[in-house]
Specification:
The protein has 2 domains: about 140 residues, Aspartate Aminotransferase, domain 1 (Alpha-Beta Complex); about 220 residues, Type I PLP-dependent aspartate aminotransferase-like (Major domain) (Aspartate Aminotransferase, domain 2, 3-Layer(aba) Sandwich). Helix content is about 40%, strand content about 15%. Helix 4 crosses helix 9 and helix 11 runs parallel beside helix 13. The radius of gyration is 21 Å and the shape is globular.
């Protein structure tokens, strides 16, 4: 039966962009490029969720999330991120950052509109814009600047149909943390050209070597034109529980609510209780996890230095963006051959725009001893190519 004739233009436009998905581990494969953290949420999160289940909490919450969680998010943003929001009118609790991205772009983009973002970038933004009939315009960055943003290049890409700038720092897939001076220049550009900024900050706690995460909304005159997206997935290891949030001016939150309601009505109530517990306790449990990721980061860099492969300085997030051009292979060819010949899984740098061609995304999210074996396989595979 030919099902294509039943598909909307939207489905045709986006079809195949996710590739083949499987939740079943394949024996012998080591994933050295995964975006899923390998640690569990702290015990107090599970205890709170078990209590919620024991109390029979299974009903809808307020569409925007339980009031206690919104208050905790507002307190967190004040204490850690340096800006204030009204928990009653300026926060939506979402089913992860993925839903937050879609609700945000549904609110901002009409067919024919665009948003700008530095490339390489997280590929979901491209897919969401395509679904909506809009465009995510990638603005290339380069290894020579460690994939930081050139604000003049960003401004040159603005068109009359541009509605927002999308900034992700720390960045997936490059690991770049934008410096304060760069963020201030982007803020000045947004104000001068009257654009909103979508600030994706889900990797905020993963910073290394003295680099510092700065929230765009904390900069002068930016709270009123910034949509901040965050998630409990990376910060607390709650990936499958699907919990995130949007913080934005009240009129934008009000405009987002119908889309949020259409997709989710509200975030999972038990996950919301877990999120409240997560924010209600100190983060001292995370220090050991960050130290372990830093250890793996140094092992990655030592392996790459020994092979003579260039890479972006991994300043934050938990990725290593590796230049595989010396092998003579494209990103897709390298990933395919690494899987078949070394039984290693990577993401091609091109998942986030053409500026990532010639690179692959490595990650710090594989635990030892598989991590150590994976690095050994990687070294043997690359040496055969060079």
């Amino acid at each position: 039966m030919d099902f294509d004739r039943y598909l909307s233009q939207r489905a045709r436009r986006v079809g195949g962009s996710l590739g083949k998905q499987t939740s079943v581990p394949i024996l012998g494969l080591i994933n050295l490029g995964s975006g899923t953290p390998d640690f569990l949420p702290p015990p107090h999160v599970f205890e709170a969720m078990k209590d919620a289940l024991g109390q029979g909490r299974a009903q809808y919450t307020a569409w925007t999330g339980i009031p206690e969680l919104r208050a905790a998010i507002a307190a967190k943003l004040h204490a850690e991120n340096g800006f204030d929001v009204d928990p009653d009118s300026e926060i939506i609790v979402t089913a992860g950052a993925q839903e937050a991205l879609m609700a945000t772009l549904m609110t901002l983009l009409d067919p024919g509109d665009n948003a700008l973002t530095p490339s390489p970038h997280y590929d979901e933004y491209t897919r969401d814009a395509l679904i909506l009939g809009g465009t995510l315009l990638p603005v290339p960055t380069t290894l020579e600047t460690n994939f930081s943003v050139d604000v003049a290049t960003l401004e040159a890409a603005i068109t009359p149909q541009t509605r927002a700038l999308v900034i992700v720092t720390p960045n997936n897939p490059t690991g770049t943390v934008l410096a304060e001076a760069t963020l201030r220049a982007i803020a000045e550009l947004a104000q001068r050209r009257d654009l909103l900024v979508v600030s994706d900050e889900i990797y905020e706690y993963y910073v290394f070597d003295g680099h510092r995460h700065i929230s765009m909304a904390s900069l002068p005159e930016m709270r009123e034109r910034t949509i901040t997206i965050n998630s409990f997935s990376k910060s607390f290891g709650m990936t499958g529980l699907r919990l995130g949030y949007i913080a934005a001016p009240a009129p934008l939150i009000q405009a987002m609510l119908p889309f949020h309601h259409a997709m989710m009505i509200c975030a999972n109530v038990v996950a919301q209780v877990g999120g409240l517990a997560a924010l209600s306790q100190p983060r001292d449990w995370f220090a050991g996890i960050l130290a372990e990721y830093d250890r793996r980061r140094h092992l990655w860099l030592a392996a790459l230095d020994a092979l003579g492969l260039p890479y972006a300085e991994p300043q934050g997030a938990y990725y290593v963006f590796i230049d595989i051009r010396p092998t003579g292979l494209s990103s897709a060819e390298f990933v395919a051959r690494a899987r078949e010949e070394a039984r290693l899984v990577f993401q091609p740098g091109t998942i986030g725009g053409g500026a990532g061609e010639g690179f692959i995304r490595g990650a710090l999210t594989q635990a030892s001893p598989a991590f150590d074996e994976g690095l050994e396989r990687f070294g043997a595979f690359v040496r055969k190519l060079l």
